[in-house]
Amino acid sequence: MAPHLDAWDPWLPQVIAERLAGLDVPWGVAGGWALDLFHGRRTRHHGDTEIAVPADRFAEVAARFPDCDFHVAGGGQVAPLSPESLRAHHQTWAWQRGAAVWRFDVFREPHDGDTWICRRDPRLRRPYAELIRHDPGGIPYLCPEVVLLFKAKAERDKDRVDFDATVPLLSSDERRWLDAALALVHPDHPWRDRLR
Question: pTM of this prediction?
Answer without folding.
Answer: 0.95
